[in-house]
Amino acid sequence: MKSQRPVNLDLRTIKLPVTAYTSILHRISGVILFVCLAIMLYALDKSLSSEEGFGQVKACLTSPLAKLVIWGILSALLYHLVAGVRHLIMDMGIGETLEGGKLGSKIVIAVSVVVIVLAGVWIW
Length: 124
Fold this sequence. Notes:
78% of the residues lie in helices and 0% in strands. It is elongated and about 70 Å long. The protein starts with 17 loop residues before the first helix and ends with a helix.
């Protein structure tokens, strides 16, 4: 039996809707938060263990690379938060249509960009 549907295996030509991008980014940000949780818990444990440990963590967090990592973790957290609020709003029955989903995705991206830039200004 021969299938009549077209087969497109070139991933660069597939055009995903904005809702797919926000969903994929929401999942990626969740994975980033899960992985970075170990780093954050280690830093918390070290800072609470002794006064010297606190000084080491404080000195480490003042480097530009550490600030970039913190901004990345905070960006993942903020995007995940904004997209999660969108999901909660959709659970209440608001924005469940195709047009509402597209508008909600655009709002999530716009709000996330603004909040992430503000977080970067706050950190640097």
